[in-house]
Amino acid sequence: MNLEVTLTAAQAWIFLPLALPIALWACYTDITEFKIKNVTVLALLAGFIVLGPFALELSEYAWRFAHFGVVLAIGFVLSAIMGIGAGDAKFAAAMAPFIALSDAGTVLVVWTMVTLATVLLYAVPRFIPMVANVGIRRASKMPFPFGIALAPTLVIYLVLGITQGGA
């Protein structure tokens, strides 16, 4: 499987120092509180607003805000219809400007793989009686925190940009 991205190494290096701690925080709060807080979403979006002009041409930078709007609208529809968490929808929307439109397919593949891995690491052990009796029983009644799949997807995407070494 070839996961090529059009993101350049320079762009990825500009965005990664911001995205990594925010992604870690989103994972932590989603696991511990089953919430991705608005301050986390706003920090990610504000980071793009500040750093975007240094990483992208002005026209590309402006178009990336359309990514935010489209993903936010889709996320709210999915939240209303399918019960996807509003924090997850907002976080996905805040991630969207970081992702080139031409890389959307690659990001969806990465997200799918990360989601499968997190389901295996997070959800499956809850059904093992020995593990469930150690205190995870309360969590087994809670929904799956999709932030633990969304946040690493952004980080992996940025790392792909670095490792592919585009100009």
Question: What key attributes describe this structure?
Answer:
167 residues; mainly alpha; 7 helices; 0% strand
Give a written overview of the molecule.
The protein has seven helices and no strands. With 167 residues, the protein is an all-alpha fold. α3 (58-82) packs antiparallel against α4, α4 runs parallel beside α7 (147-163) and α5 crosses α7 (147-163). The protein is globular, with a radius of gyration of 16 Å.
Secondary structure topology:
Layout: H1 9-33, H2 38-55, H3 58-82, H4 86-95, H5 104-123, H6 129-140, H7 147-163
Question: Quick summary of this structure?
Answer:
It contains 7 helices and no strands. It is mainly alpha-helical and 167 residues long.
